[in-house]
TrEMBL record:
The lineage of its organism: Bacteria, Bacillati, Actinomycetota, Actinomycetes, Kitasatosporales. This is Molybdopterin-dependent oxidoreductase. It comes from the Bacteria. SUPFAM superfamilies: Oxidoreductase molybdopterin-binding domain (SSF56524). It comes from Streptomyces bluensis. Residues 1-32 are annotated as: Disordered.
Length: 261
């Protein structure tokens, strides 16, 4: 398992804060008062000093518990993640591995399918190295992701002519995302099994997450469990809370970041 552990350090002296569903520059967006109160109450600064990997699981669920009290979510830095922050909108996320992981493809398809992790691993893998950009401002350059092209899974399932979009669901039980069918068929959209040349850790959404290279990282749903082909786009979790549904880096959410892909 990973030794990753959320803690309080912030690059550029930023206060930890969750996704803020509106445009504008990140430095104009303080953490909402509720967030500051929650973080202060929990004493995250002290927690950050706890470095023993054995405590990681407890800390993670502790942080998750805090997120549960704050519907806007909770973040922490992943110290070994090279600038990544941990995001979850739920208080805890079940752990899944090759013994119990399933990815279901259903909706407007001729052949609804359920893949095990081994089945996904056995399919041809695509590796891409792109920058990762979160809509709150942090960016991680040159991050390798590896997995199965979403288009391959869609073709295998046989998308029906009436289809126009995809809805993604997650085994955290709450997060959702969306893409148009055209976006989903892009060669730079992966059902990712690996990140930074390692199997995806639980914190990063393992064993399987979506990776949408040209879009803000909120599109890259962690703990992916369902791909439902639909007629029209149904806005995802953050999109219902104000983020752009078309999330091209640098061309959405009122931001001006350099494209990632
Ligand atoms: N299931 C789930 N997926 C998610 C999120 C989440 O809260 N839950 N947050 C999104 C956002 S806003 C970002 S920036 C990235 C963070 O990925 P990381 O935790 O691996 O850094 O995951 C995205 N996918
Ligand atoms: Mo994000």
């Amino acid at each position: 398992m990973t030794t990753e552990q959320p803690h309080e350090e912030q690059p550029h002296g930023e206060q930890p804060h969750e996704e803020q569903p509106h445009g504008g520059q990140p430095d104009e967006r303080g953490a909402p008062v509720g967030r500051r109160v929650v973080l202060g109450t929990l004493g995250l600064g002290a927690l950050g000093l706890v470095a023993a990997p054995a405590l990681q699981r407890g800390l993670e669920s502790f942080l998750g518990g805090a997120a549960g009290k704050d519907p806007t979510g909770l973040t922490g830095l992943l110290p070994n993640g090279g600038g990544f922050r941990y995001y979850s909108v739920t208080s805890s996320v079940p752990r899944k591995d090759a013994s119990n992981y399933r990815l279901t493809i259903d909706g407007l398809v001729d052949r609804p399918t359920s893949y095990t992790l081994d089945e996904l691993t056995a399919l041809p893998q695509t590796r891409m190295v792109r920058d990762v950009q979160c809509v709150t401002g942090w960016r991680v350059p040159d991050t390798p992701f590896e997995g199965v092209r979403l288009s391959r899974l869609l073709d295998a399932a046989g998308v029906r002519p009436s289809a126009g979009a995809i809805r993604f669901t997650c085994f955290d039980g709450a997060y959702t995302e969306s893409l148009t069918l055209d976006q989903a068929r892009r060669a730079d959209v992966l059902v990712a099994l690996r990140m930074q040349d390692k199997d995806l850790s639980h914190s990063h959404g393992g064993p399987v997450r979506l990776y949408v290279a040209p879009m803000y990282f909120y599109k890259s749903a962690k703990w992916l469990s369902g791909i439902t082909v639909t007629e029209k786009v149904r806005p995802g979790y953050w999109e219902e809370r104000g983020y752009d549904v078309d999330a091209w880096v640098g061309r959405s959410n009122g931001r001006h970041d350099e494209p990632t892909a």
